[in-house]
Amino acid sequence: MRVITDFPRKVREIENLWIPMPDGIKLAARVWLPEDADADPVPAILEYLPYRKRDGTVERDALTHPYFAGHGYAGVRVDMRGSGDSEGLCKGEYLKQEQDDCLAVIEWLARQPWCSGSVGMIGISWGGFNGLQVAARRPPALKAVISLCSTDDRYNDDVHYLGGAMMCDNLMWGTTAWAIAMTPPDPLIVGDRWRDLWEQRLNGNGIWMQDWFEHQRRDDFYKHGSICEDYADVEIPVYAVGGWADGYPNPIFRMLENLPGPRKGLIGPWGHKYPHFAMPGPRMGFLQECLRWWDQYLKGIDTGIADEPMLRAWIQDPARPAAIYDERPGRWVAEPSWPGPGVGQKVLNLAPHVLSEAKGDNAILEISSPQTAGLSSGAWCGYGVMPTLPVDQRSEEGNALIFETAPLTEAVEILGFPEFEVKLASDKPVALLSATLSQVFADGAASRVSYGILNLSHRNGDLEIEPLVPGQAETVRIKLRCCGQRFEAGERIRLALATSHWPIVFPTAEQATLSIHCGSSRLILPVRAPQKLDDTLGAFLGPESASPMEQEVLAKGDGFQRSVSTDQVTGETVYQVINDGGTVRHPHTGMTLSARHVDRFTIHPDDPNTAVGTCTWEKSYGRGDWQARVSVKATVRALRDVWRIETHITAHDRNEVVVDRSEVKEYPRDLN
């Protein structure tokens, strides 16, 4: 990545300033802006997060916000209430209080002498979510949004539920968020009151995942903050960005289809990172692309971006299965709108173990997968820089019903959502259906292309949940995750059907057997023919950034580990991820940090009620006499009738125990 140090405008940084809220709470902000902004005011670009501006996102901020400032903007990074160096409490994600505070921040920014009165919001993940949510509140000064790796649907396209199935990320992200919410502010910013502020968080921020287990249906809890409830609320321009390896590509297509105002989509091969430093590559000049968007909608400069195709997407060429890629080969394509006029359908019918365009076979096949089916799936959300992508799907062949085409006689490209329509019956009132689409190479290696999971009690939608009638056949439709993929001639297309998908989702309370009626079932692929528009695309510029932040590695950790092991005596299988970042020091603040986390999931293949997930985080912060550390541990047990959550937290101020607290809560299982 090219590092830029000489910008059109000289940059000054305000390490911390306080933004007052209407109730007297103050939020901490870090600001980069042109030195002459008081004389020549500039638009502000806001990134609003709970991830600690002082240390949590500091490396990314150093690459991004000074770059914007050097090109005539004020880059503003704000810690949300109850996080980082800000005052108050943060009692959950995406609450109305969070949005209200952001409205106050935007109004405050627009009044500053160095601000032109126009504000944009940018953010990835949480910051991408709240950019959309705040846009729906229509603050007058907010003129445009760039939202990366985010969602329009908090219930069914986030970390909580997938097709109505309880996600294991409910625990993994829940523990991560809990750990972040329990960390202390920096005494160099807040002074001697840091301990009081920390204790307020430790005793008041709560354990947010408990809300997610309490709310197992699509109720008002999830409708709040889901812009899909009324897309018309978001009128300002939205640039939606994501990657195929990320957990959030689906909402991009829905927002392009449904948002009423100017919108644009960009989907690369990337994981959950900004595209100028994301993996898998190729990386692109994302910050330059942002400037074109900001110049168009915050400064009124015609950059041409408004006249370009609505969607640019990376069609991936075949790549053999691997847990990590430096780059994914492929090419950029474009659609003028979505649904794209260049996208049609290819229907493949089911016969025993066969996918073809011929009429399906009337055979009925049964599947009752071991609870360990899905262990090759990798992480629900890939971060790219860590080896968490799905591995060879051949290991799943004994766990699923396999349907496969003959070797293709010509290449096939797909873009959008594959769908599977199936007639089935279950012997249990609650069951899961997992459908995995793979690309099979001549030697049998299978790379996952897409997958979908449906809790069949949600077969009529998330608002009409009802148990199955055992033995009664019904036709259901499952939408797989969107993708952009090329299949070459000689390769095969595979569909694998299973009744579990561990550890992406927890199993249902009883092990079910599904009967698949082949003759009434079909796979529908969104095929795309090459378009003339593809040949008119200009190449993206190369990646650029401001200068990276310096840091010293004081102690190397164990790094990243991911493993699966099976006890050959008991049959218990363990899936474990360890990520130990060691200890680093940030010279610009003098802060020393360490972080280590472990995710461990165990299950017996014959018993869904043995499913247990345990996640731990250990974090420490220090500088001289200031030494604070926090450790959290959360366990979820998928028992027959209840979800049991066991939590424990300890926090230390040097050797003094500040908090040592355990808790057990149970939540009745609600058709999941």
TrEMBL record:
<dbReference type="InterPro" id="IPR000383">
    <property type="entry name" value="Xaa-Pro-like_dom"/>
</dbReference>
<dbReference type="InterPro" id="IPR029058">
    <property type="entry name" value="AB_hydrolase_fold"/>
</dbReference>
<dbReference type="Pfam" id="PF08530">
    <property type="entry name" value="PepX_C"/>
</dbReference>
<dbReference type="Pfam" id="PF02129">
    <property type="entry name" value="Peptidase_S15"/>
</dbReference>
<protein>
    <submittedName>
        <fullName>Peptidase S15</fullName>
    </submittedName>
</protein>
<feature type="domain" description="Xaa-Pro dipeptidyl-peptidase C-terminal">
    <location>
        <begin position="291"/>
        <end position="524"/>
    </location>
</feature>
<dbReference type="InterPro" id="IPR005674">
    <property type="entry name" value="CocE/Ser_esterase"/>
</dbReference>
<dbReference type="InterPro" id="IPR050585">
    <property type="entry name" value="Xaa-Pro_dipeptidyl-ppase/CocE"/>
</dbReference>
<keyword id="KW-0378">Hydrolase</keyword>
<dbReference type="InterPro" id="IPR008979">
    <property type="entry name" value="Galactose-bd-like_sf"/>
</dbReference>
<dbReference type="GO" id="GO:0008239">
    <property type="term" value="F:dipeptidyl-peptidase activity"/>
</dbReference>
<dbReference type="InterPro" id="IPR013736">
    <property type="entry name" value="Xaa-Pro_dipept_C"/>
</dbReference>
